[in-house]
Amino acid sequence: MLNPQLGLVVDADGHVLEPGDLWLRYLEPQYRDRAIKVAPDHEGYEVLLIDNKPHPLFRGNLGVLGGIEMDPVALGTPGKMTYLDGSPRGGYDPETRLQVMDEEGIDVALLYPTIGICWEGMVEDGQLATAYTRAYNRWIAEFCRHNPKRLYPIAHITLLDPAGAVEEVIRARKDGCVGVYLSPDMAARHNKHFDHPDFVRFWQTVQDLQMPFGFHVVVREHRPLPEWQRQNTDAPLETVGLFGFTFLALDVMAAFTSIVSKGIFEKYPRLKCGVLESGANWISAWLDRMDHKYEVMKAFTPITMKPSEYFYRQCLVSADPDETATAKIVEHMGADYFIWASDYPHIDASYGVVKEMKERLSSLPLASQRKVLGENAVRFYGLAA
Questions:
Q1: Is residue 304 part of a domain?
Q2: Fewer CB within 10 Å, N- or C-terminus of the chain?
Q3: Is the model's pLDDT at 236 over the cut of 60?
Q4: Which residues pair with 40 in a beta bridge?
């Protein structure tokens, strides 16, 4: 597996497909009657139940949550394919996942949820939300213990319950989690901004634990720029469409911009942030834009450096294999600030991505290729790989 020239290959944003009964098995008894679960509705269509309410975007089409290199039409047609039909075994079985990694040429994977990126916008009860994350985090830690040198769990933490978030991130760190996934959208934290006083202990704790946090795209009924999108929940894929699918990245970009501009990196200089599944080729132009606007707005912001300086000090951004200008952007900004991701086993992922990434980076010096392919992730997350 290990290429002596290119070093470790680290997938910095792979996914699992959580078993449909995970929360029934891992939730504490007092919450089990409100478990997240995959179940048939009154007409026999498979639905994703969140606190006993069906997710409005998934009715008979849960296969779209996986679906790598499968037919999107079949996956998205209600009643045609189940969640399990769209779930390759490597999404939920650790031994098979390792086989897939071997076939792909991936040495190490950082693992994020799938159902976990869907439910936060539907939950108002903070303690229930924390219980959901605690159940998932226990399961993913067990999953990764199958081979702890190659599989690394990322803890799902919800800010709906700030006190619970602190307790759970401490517990998850002790259980082997090496980073934190935070939902980027406002609904996931009761519309509180990142600089709200309720979150002070959380930021302090994550900084002290040396756990990088990452913003990742989410799937919500209420989507960014809704006035530009169709409102037809009988055909979820048509509802989202190319426009909505493309703009899934907007929440991530907004959260990153917010956390810089609201002074979180200023106040917590050892905090580390990963910007995930929004591509990487935009980051240079966006930082240029932020730096320029900062010169005008600096008197009205709580930061004392250019936004780009916080990025260089505390952040990484994840490149997608299909981006065509990655090598030029890496060359322009420096190789220390980039990682890459497979997004396996989602519908917009594909096989052969390591080969594709290596081809994208081949014009760079070997030292730069090694950093992007794996060394940066190992350093940033403190991996033992």
A1: yes
A2: N
A3: no
A4: 46
Between helices 326-333 and 283-297, what is the axis angle to 10°? 40
DSSP letter (8 states) at residue 374: I
219: left (phi over 0), alpha (psi -120 to 50) or beta: beta
247: which 2 tokens? 């703009």
Strands (E), the chain: 10-15, 37-40, 46-50, 53-59, 108-112, 151-156, 179-182, 213-215, 273-275, 315-319, 338-340
Of 306, 368, 357, give the one whose Cα is nearest residue 333: 368
Residue 218's domain is classified under what CATH number?
A: 3.20.20.140
Give the chain's domain count: 1
49 Rama class: left (phi>0) / alpha (psi -120 to 50) / beta = beta
The per-residue pLDDT for range 181-208, each reduced to its tens digit, is 999 999 999 999 999 999 999 999 999 9
Would the pTM count as exceeding 0.85?
yes
Residue recorded with tokens 């919800």: 158
In the chain the first and final C-alpha atoms are separated, in Å, by 13
**Residue 336 structural domain:** 10-21+93-381
Report, as an integer, the average pLDDT of 319-331. 97
Please count the residues of the chain.
385
Does 279 have pLDDT greater than 90?
Answer: yes
**% of the chain at pLDDT higher than 70:** 96
Report if residue 43 sits inside a domain.
no
Residue 64 lies in a domain: no
Which run of H or of E encompasses 70?
A: none
Percent of the chain with pLDDT over 90: 89
For residue 56, give both structure tokens: 């409005």
Burial 233-269 (b: 16+ CB within 10 A, else e): eeebbebbbeebeebbbbbbbbbbebbbbbbbbbebe
In-domain check, residue 199: yes
What DSSP state is assigned to residue 199?
G
Listed residue (134, 183, 104) closest to 341, CA to CA: 104
Q: If pLDDT is split at 50, 70 and 90, which confidence band does 1 have?
A: very low
CA-nearest of 90, 94, 44, 87 to 67 is 87
Distance CA 168, CA 271 (A): 18
